[in-house]
Every structure is written in C-alpha cells, then in structure tokens.
Design goal:
With 504 residues, this protein is an alpha+beta fold. 24% of the residues lie in helices and 27% in strands. The chain contains 8 helices and 24 strands. The strands form 4 sheets. Strands 3, 4, 5, 6, 11, 12, 13, 14 and 15 form a 9-stranded mixed sheet that branches. A hairpin with a 6-residue loop joins strand 22 and strand 23. Helix 1 packs parallel to helix 4. The longest helix is centred in the first third of the chain and has 34 residues. The two termini are 40 Å apart. The C terminus is likely disordered.
C-alpha cells in the first residue's frame, strides 16, 4: 500500500524551539518554506538580524509537497505570459526564473549542500490530441522572451513511449528540496538568524516598528515578510486575484537506466509532469479547484493509469500525495509590498505551479527591497498590479467563489453521521448550521463548524488527503479541524459554538 506522504518527508529537519520571549530584529519572516528561508538566508548573509516564525516544522508546509522542478519553462507558457505582460514582461519573467535556478546552484556550491542538485534538460511535449502549432507558437514566444537556447526537437528521449515533437529547455535542474532547506536553515542560524517553529502567529501589524504577535510573545521588526503560501494577514485584497488548486503526485520505482534523467511536462489542461529521483519515477497532475472535487482518490488512480501507459516497467506505487498551488490571474507570483498596508509589510504568494523558482525569486526580490536596493523584477511581481488582459479570468474565478456561498442553502453530504465510515468525513446539516464531521479509525466522531474562519465558505472533505478544504480561497484544515493552510489563521470552530458565517 502506498505511503500517503511525499518522498522528501523522510529527511530529518533541524529542530527549532518555539518563541518564548519578546525580541526585536531587523526582519521578521513568517513562514519557513522555500520563500521564507531564502529571504531570511539572503538577509542574514547581508548582515541583517532575522527571525523566522512557523507554526509547524521547517519546510513542513507546501514546500514539502513539491516535486521540485527547477525550470524557466513557465507553467502558463510564454504565449500567455507575453499576452498578459507584454514582450518585456515575458523577458523579465524568463530572466527571473533563469536567475532563480542559477542562485540555487550558487547557494548549493557555496554552502556545500548535499541535496542531489543536478542540471538537466526539460521537455515540453504535446498532450494527446495536441496540435504541433501550439508548440510552434510557444517556441517562438520563448525565443522572443530571450530563451535563445530552447530547441524544437523531434521527441523527448524516452524509450518507452514516443512523445512526438517537443521543446527542449536546456539547463533546467532538480534537487532534494528538504535537504537543501535543512542546510539553508543551519546557514541562517550560523549567520546570527533565529528560527522558531511551533509558533503560531496570530496578528501582524505594520508600522515603526512592525509588530508580530505569537501567543503571549511579540517580535518587533523594521520589516515583516509574510511567506505562508497564502497570506494570513489579508482578508480580501490578494485573495480575489488568485485561486487555489489541488495537484496530485505518485512515485514508483523503475529499473535503473530505463527512464532518462530529464524533466518533462505535457501541454494538457490540467497538465502532467515527470521527473526521476534516484530510481523513483515521480508523476504529477490531475489538478482541480480546491474543495471542488468529490473524486479525489480517483486522481491518484488516473495518474497511475496515465503513467503505466507510458512507463510499463514501473513497479507498484510507493508514495502518493497531494499539494495546493495558488494560480494567479496572470500566471506570475505576487511578491513585494502588501497592498493597502504599511510600507514595511511584504508578502509572497501565487506560486502558479512554479513554487521552487518563484520562492527563490521572492528571496532575491524581497531582500533587495528590504535592503533598499533596486530590482528589475519589482514591477512585474508587484502584488498591487492590475493586469487588464486577465479581467475575464478574474471575473470567472470570483464568480465561482460567490457561487460557493449557496452551499449554505443545501443539505449535507449525508443525512446522518451513521453513514460516515471510519477514517472518513462528511458535511452534516444540523438545523441552520453545517457541521464537518470526521469519524476516526476507532469510530469516534469529531465535529467542527463547517464555516471556514476566513470568510465563511463551507469546507469540503478531501478523501485523498483526509483534509477539510475551503473551495473559496484555499484554506485547509486537517481531519480534526486544525488549520494547515491560509488564508484562515485559526482552526474550524467547535460545532457547539455557532458562529456567524457571514462574518467568520
């Protein structure tokens, strides 16, 4: 039976204490994933005193669930990026993702990090039914963006199936993300930085100084960076400009040498992505809007069927997991000063499927802004930007969010808790309220109010991940209702404590 966790999770990460005193630092970073740790590392290297706070472990959030592709082949493609951001914007996007890969390689070399970093080729090939013209347009757009080394080739180097024509993106890379971040955390502390895990931030206030409240203690700082995958300090501003999507991954062993060491992606929607880690073949895809699919276990089975058709030599699936990506309205992350906030509060969100490179770009860009240095990518990634060409997507996604509130008018998933099987969950209506009910393997029921504490949408049960997922803005909660992903910043309320779902 496949282990339901990512293949990276076996790495022992550095142990850090919770915050137990009031402190003052130059920069306080909330979130210890790729974005937060890269920002902290670069600031500490520049001589700034930093503190990193996380309510979980180092790299214990969505960074742990990545497949760690490092590439300047953007998920949304250069045709779309050029349409939305212009030719110069596409060039800057290509330049920034290229620079992110180079910076990771530089850090690996300078810090002597043993994290399986390797440069390799990436291949974009057609999904079934795809047209060659789409690749030709993408090739031309990538070249206009400055990626002159991209090549149009007859096929990717897989012996087990013929991809047909594809684009080769040279100098892509891969690594073991947790081995990399474990060493980054050590380097931060070596340079005088402090990392506090098991520390839940309850409020963030900009100003001079900024104040970050975590339980009974506070961190005051000249600058604050909110790097929590989805900002927990905003209720609306950023969240209307991006949408949460779940993506799924499987890993199975293949005989040594039967699959080439390359990255690859197809042009499907949703698309599939492939890489190797040792003799483990990693295949991902089957994305859907978070909280808006009832067939989540089937996603892993469909991935396996797709993979076996192309890699018949693969063994049994050993790992199966999922993660959440935030898709922005215009294909690029939001990195910079938090809109409608004090000038010393910064955010990073909207990985758009490029979490490793966007997270590294965030470290480079935010450290420059905090240090008072100019950065050529600042305007492109500005969280306050308005992309006129994305208006249709903006309207569609927000109409979808509005539709989710009609859930309060419907019945539950089941008529009675008696229908809920062990280690499963469902929504049950009780009078005017909806209750998120989980039955544990021993048969005990755990009931929470189904209203997401962010803006009151009804959460949905994700059978594959055994989580409660909000279909509006991506908040996620474990089976017992504990918050594991923002924008919600507190747990689902106990069922017996009714809350106003319109002002939750």
């Amino acid at each position: 039976m496949a282990l339901h966790r990512s293949i990276w999770a076996d790495v022992a990460m550095p142990q850090s204490p919770p915050l137990q005193e009031n402190i003052h630092v130059d920069a306080c970073i909330v979130g210890a994933g790729i974005s937060g740790l890269t920002t902290a590392y670069l600031l500490a290297r520049a001589g700034r005193l930093v503190a990193v706070l996380d309510d979980g472990a180092v790299a214990g959030g969505m960074t742990q669930r990545t497949t760690a592709h490092i590439s300047n082949m953007l998920d949304d493609g250069y045709v779309e990026i050029e349409k939305l951001h212009g030719r110069e914007g596409a060039r800057l996007a290509a330049d920034s993702h290229t620079a992110a890969a180079d910076r990771i390689e530089t850090i690996v070399r300078q810090e002597r990090i043993d994290c399986d970093f390797a440069r390799l080729d990436g291949y974009l090939f057609l999904a079934e039914g795809g047209r060659r013209e789409a690749l030709e347009r993408e090739f031309d757009a990538a070249r206009r963006a400055g990626l002159r080394a991209v090549e149009f080739v007859a096929r990717a180097p897989y012996a087990s199936f013929d991809t047909g024509p594809c684009l080769r993106f040279p100098s892509a890379a891969q690594f073991h993300p947790l081995k990399y971040l474990a060493r980054l955390a050590q380097a931060i502390e070596h340079d005088g930085g402090r990392i506090f895990t098991g520390t839940h931030v309850t409020s963030i206030e900009g100003g001079v100084p900024a104040v970050v409240q975590a339980g009974q203690h506070v961190v005051t700082a000249d600058a604050v960076v909110v790097a929590t995958n989805v900002p927990v300090n905003d209720r609306v501003t950023i969240h209307t400009k991006q949408a949460p999507y779940m993506t799924y991954v499987i890993a199975a062993r293949v005989p040594q040498g039967t699959v080439p060491q390359v990255l690859s992606w197809d042009t499907g929607d949703p698309y599939h992505y492939i890489r190797l880690h040792g003799d483990l073949l990693i295949v991902g895809g089957e994305d859907h809007k978070s909280g808006q699919a009832s067939d989540t276990p089937e996603r892993h089975r469909r991935l396996e069927a797709w993979a076996r058709k192309r890699f018949p030599m693969m063994g049994a699936v050993e790992y199966a997991w999922g993660g959440q990506v935030m898709e922005t309205q215009d294909g690029l992350a939001f990195i910079g000063r938090n809109p409608a906030d004090h000038d010393n509060v910064y955010v990073v969100t909207g990985d758009s499927g490029m979490g490793i490179t966007h997270g590294t770009i965030a470290g480079m860009l935010l450290s420059d802004l905090i240090l008072g240095q100019t950065n050529p990518w600042a305007k492109l990634y500005d969280p306050a930007r308005v992309t006129l060409g994305a208006a249709v997507d903006f309207a569609r996604e927000n109409s979808n969010v509005a539709l989710q509130y009609t859930e309060w008018l419907t019945g539950g998933d089941v008529a009675s808790v008696d229908e809920i099987r062990p280690d499963s969950g469902a929504i049950v209506r009780k009078g005017l309220e909806k209750i998120a009910v989980y039955r544990d393997p021993q048969g005990k029921l755990h009931e929470r109010n189904a209203a997401c504490p962010h803006l009151g949408c009804v959460v949905h049960w994700n059978r594959a991940e055994t989580t409660w997922d909000c279909p509006c803005h991506g908040s996620r909660f474990d089976r017992y209702g504990k918050v594991i992903n923002g924008p919600a910043n507190r747990d689902l309320a106990p069922a017996q404590k009714s809350q106003d779902k319109r002002a939750a």
